[in-house]
What we know:
By secondary structure, this protein is an alpha+beta fold. The protein contains 20 helices and 24 strands. β21 (550-551) and β22 (558-559) form a beta hairpin.
Amino acid sequence: MLFSKLAEYFEKLEQTSSRLTLIDILSDLFSEVEASEIAKVCYLIQGRVAPFYEALEIGMAEKTVAASIARAYGVEREEVLKEYGKLGDLGLVAERHSGKRVKRVDPESDSGVLRQNVGVPRMTVGDVFEQLRKIAQISGEGTVEKKQGLLVDLLTKMDGVSAKHLVRIPLGASRLGIGDPTILDGFAKAKLGDRKKRVELEEAYNKTSDLGLIGEVLWEKGLEGVRKLEVAVGRPIRSQLTERLPDAKTILEKFGGEAHVQYKYDGFRVEIHKNGDSVRLFSRNLEETTPMFPELIEGVKKQVKAKTAILDSEALAFNPVSEEFLPFQETTKRRRKYNIADMAKTLPLKAFVFDVMYLDGKSLIDLPLRDRMKKLADVIEGNEVLIPQPGEITDLESRINELFGDAITKGLEGLVVKRPDSKYEAGARNFNWVKLKRHSAGELKDTIDCVILGYIFGRGKRVEFGAGSLLVGVYDESQDEFVTVSKIGTGLTDEEWREIHKRADKIKVDHKPARVNSILVPSVWIAPEIVIEVLADEITKSPVHTAGASTSSASGEKQPGLALRFPRLVKFREADKTAEDATTVKELLEMYKQQFKK
Ligand code: ATP
């Protein structure tokens, strides 16, 4: 496929504000794509040159991209930057210049000859992808110049629309906002005839986290091939998550008598992959975090007695002498990209390992939890850095309460209680894993992770920062949509408003994003990317919000949406959560129901 063809599709995708249309456009696009290109197309749609979990970033600063545009089209760099200031998007600047014939000599080009941006663009998707990958892989001396050279080369071979979309990729500013489930919908529609058949692809996706791989297998071997895809070392498995229940009694009833109890640690989720001497770590949102935690890597090498293994753990700062768990605010200092060796010394992490999904070449995800726990106890030797948490099985409410009290005394968040006979369900959030947390009177038992969808200008002092309240939403998994639950103005300091304003301005969009479903219209829409943790007193029904709202197809009766009463910001959550990791509508509905059970 020609890259210009792909860019035409990008153009259409960018313009729609309906999710169903997104799927139709994707399906049309996918129908034209060959097996050899489908993976590349998927990664490019998401502005990447590798699956999300590969830490391969193209990594070019705005300045460098601006310089590349200037060189490619023979314009002054200042001119490019000035236009960027006006248009807020280097893609548009590139588009504007690429159409023009260049009539002057480019002083920075090697030969100094006249550059003429004419001719038919014939770059294929594969050509562009490979060149972008090359840019991503350059390192060492002269990196910036080399990257710039390759981007200039690409730009001179492109038409305007292609240049516009190309330029956004190295900047990480691709504005298509297409989530993984929507791509799967597109696959299903193009290859299985119906977008609803996405469910048939989901299991493979949860086990492999690689849309490109699924595309390739689906194109080459069909659905049968996809069903055979298995867990593999080096490819993160999507984390299993928890539901909420109010107390031990309810949990035992729900589980039918027996429960597997573990402490709930408040740190970072770390999925550990060991393959001989190579150890890789992944976060809950599937980012590779290997370079961040060298002490964990050493711990795995010393303590894991298996050639290959995948373990699930929570890492946090812990003082083994005083048996003190450090608060999350301390642990979170470790999520950084510099001074790593120093930080590993002053604030070393321990990994509390609570599951094992793969051992010596075999997937364990279909084994019952109680059998996995036996394997866990055997495979980790000692407890210096990796501390195995086999937990305990009980049928007594009193024992669960005792352990809960113990957890709170130790400074932990509470418990995670699991169904002893359950499989490891990659990517699932259901009642096989239940979190039990302490609650303070008058408040919901848990906070809600919301995505900022837009902001509404206020009056008075805050106008200066450009926002009066934030329109926030949660994630509707079944629709791959963001739906609104609240407007928030409380709990933010002036500094935070400024911060939000600065960040939101970069991801401003001129129409409602296709995956946002809202009745309210904010002053400014932004791409759904920023996740905040919100505390509220109560969940109520509201006709102006769309979370959980529905219309019965039989009676036409309308169900109002859910809303948060007295919402306030607790903290920003983006370090470990993408928009799709926000609280889901399904969870919110559960929390709503549980309010009445108190
Ligand atoms: P919260 O905001 O309440 O910490 P969360 O939104 O991060 O929760 P949940 O699904 O609600 O995610 O809680 C599960 C998280 O708890 C897991 O992602 C994991 O990081 C952490 N955790 C700590 N201890 C355990 C454990 N023993 N078993 C499973 N998960 C655990």
